[in-house]
Each structure stands twice: as C-alpha cells, then as structure tokens.
Specification:
- A hairpin with a 2-residue loop joins strand 2 and strand 3.
- It contains 3 helices and 7 strands, in the order αβαββββββα.
- It has 2 domains: 48 residues, Translation Initiation Factor IF3; 42 residues, no CATH class.
- The longest helix has 15 residues.
- 24% of the residues lie in helices and 30% in strands.
- By secondary structure, it is an alpha+beta fold.
- The strands form 3 sheets. A 3-stranded antiparallel β-sheet has the order 1-3-2. It has a two-stranded antiparallel ribbon with strand order 4-5. Strands 6-7 form a two-stranded antiparallel sheet.
Length: 119
C-alpha cells in the first residue's frame, strides 16, 4: 500500500469484513501507519490519500543533444521559380553545412591526462 501511495497518491482499499466498527478501526490504523489522510469510507471500500513525494532529477552529464528538424531552402538556378523547401532531421552527432547537407560533427579532440591535470 505504501508503494501504491507513493506512485498514485490516492488509493482505494476493499475490506471483506461485515463488521462496520472493525472496518472503521482498520481505516484509522491504516491512515496512521501509512501517514495518509482518510478520505472516504463507503461500505467495504476505504479511500486513502497522501501527497506524492517529489522525485529528484539527476542530470546526466554524458547525455548528448537530441534530434531536431531543420527547414532548408534550396534556390533554383532559374530566376522565376520558388525555392524548394526541405525538412531535414539533424541528429545530435550531426551538423548542417551551409550548402544544406547533413554531415557528422567533428569529434572533440582528446586531451591527455597530463594536460587535464595541468589546467
């Protein structure tokens, strides 16, 4: 139940007991043990609520840029015609040349451990 409250915040619990006072006692003990608020008790159905805890976002420093769509205009050699519009998908390891071609980006030069320790 604790995992369900962490994931959803609001859960419904069905209890198969015919004794109303026992169900109410279970309702209060569940709410106290889980640190949740008792919302509703209808028949054999109990509803509990607890705010969902904030998740810590861990930035991934190795993550590269994602794909992006770029519109490229190619002009015709004849004067009166409209330029041709192409939509190209450029991936994170690619670049767009001035001519409208997609090329693989140049890798960063590797720095030796000695030079890295000097800076």
């Amino acid at each position: 139940m604790d995992a369900a409250l962490n994931a959803h915040g609001l859960i419904k619990v069905r209890i198969f007991s015919d004794d109303r006072t026992a169900r109410e006692a279970m309702f209060q003990t569940l709410a106290d043990e889980l640190g949740a608020a008792p919302i509703q008790h209808i028949g054999k159905l109990l509803v509990l609520w607890r705010p969902i805890p904030e998740k810590d976002k861990v930035p991934d420093e190795d993550r590269k840029a994602g794909p992006r769509d770029v519109k490229v205009l190619k002009y015709s050699k004849r004067a009166g015609q409209r330029p041709e519009v192409k939509t190209l998908r450029v991936l994170g390891n690619q670049r767009l040349t001035p001519g409208g071609n997609v090329k693989r980006a140049k890798p960063k030069p590797k720095i030796s451990l000695k030079k890295r320790s000097q800076t």
